[in-house]
Amino acid sequence: MKKLKIVVSCILAMVMLAVSTVPVFANEEDDLSIAKAQVLDYAYQCESLYVFYYHMTPIDVPIWSNESTQRMKDVVEKVRNEVDNCATIEEVDDYHALLDDAVGKMCISSSELQWMLDYMKNDYNSTGYYEDETYSELKNIYETAQSAIKSGIDIDIHNAYIDMRNELNKLCGYNLVRYDVNMDGEFNIKDCTLMQLKLADLMDFNSSQNYVAGFYHNSTIKEVTEKQLMLANLSDIEYVKEIETNFVELDPSIRNYLGTDYETSNPMYNYDRYVWWT
């Protein structure tokens, strides 16, 4: 009888152990399935953002380099093809890390940097307007960008682009007197004359002059007429002397421009870069 009790006790213990183990295995399987679903969703988000730009038409953010885009495509495909074969969460985490690495290596296209070089060429060629320290910084950044374009190295192009964007913000904030394109400290008829020459393609403006004048790619001579009326107190528009600048500085580590203020904080860049707006 005693032996029977011992046998029964052992059987009951084994049954209890088996029953208690089932939820543990079930939970582990559930956690693994969740982890796989999460990394697949992450892959989808990366593809949508870095390859398809969320199907924006037209695109109103900087585009990524071909090398960056292809790397992301390859990683997304690898995750989709292989993550279901993972036996542990640790293995799934490795695929998440691959996506993180691809995101961190995304670099801006050389076409974006070339646009900045063309856009700021008049700044580089400007004489007598910017003080020596400002011009020296501009010259260094501009020539570094030129070298980056020639090198074709993704990360150098990316960093040069960021520097150019931030330098443009500095130049647009160089003179805060509205319409003072000759930088004598006030808005007067001399400024209007220079604006007329600029719009008649008889002289070039640098970025600071364009910004204080409020000139974009589609500005016309009518705008100068409005300013002249303002000077003569014949306009209903009140002249506000100081320009406010709320530019957002770009961080080279940022890899997402959608839904941010990066593209819109400097209206001159925003309107001139994405000309479909107007």
What does this structure look like?
The protein has 278 residues and is an all-alpha fold. It has helices at residues 2-50, 66-82, 89-104, 110-119, 121-124, 132-151, 154-172, 189-199, 207-213, 221-231, 267-273. It has 11 helices and no strands. Helix 1 packs antiparallel against helix 2 and helix 6 runs antiparallel to helix 7.
Biggest β-sheet strands, sense, barrel: none
Q: What is the percent of helical residues? A: 55-70%
What's the assembly state of these chains?
Answer: single chain
Strand content: under 5%
How far from one another are the termini? 96 Å
Overall average pLDDT: 91
| Rg (CA only) | 30 Å
How many DSSP-defined strands?
Answer: 0
Give the helix/strand class.
mainly alpha
Helices, by number, come to 11
Shape: elongated
SSE blueprint and pairings:
Elements (H helix, E strand, L loop, with lengths): L1 H49 L15 H17 L6 H16 L5 H10 L1 H4 L7 H20 L2 H19 L16 H11 L7 H7 L7 H11 L35 H7 L5
Helix pairs in contact: 1-2, 1-3, 2-3, 4-6, 4-7, 6-7, 8-10
Task: Throw out a few tags for this protein.
11 helices, 278 residues, mainly alpha
Quick structural overview:
By secondary structure, the chain is mainly alpha-helical. It has helices at 2-50, 66-82, 89-104, 110-119, 121-124, 132-151, 154-172, 189-199, 207-213, 221-231, 267-273.
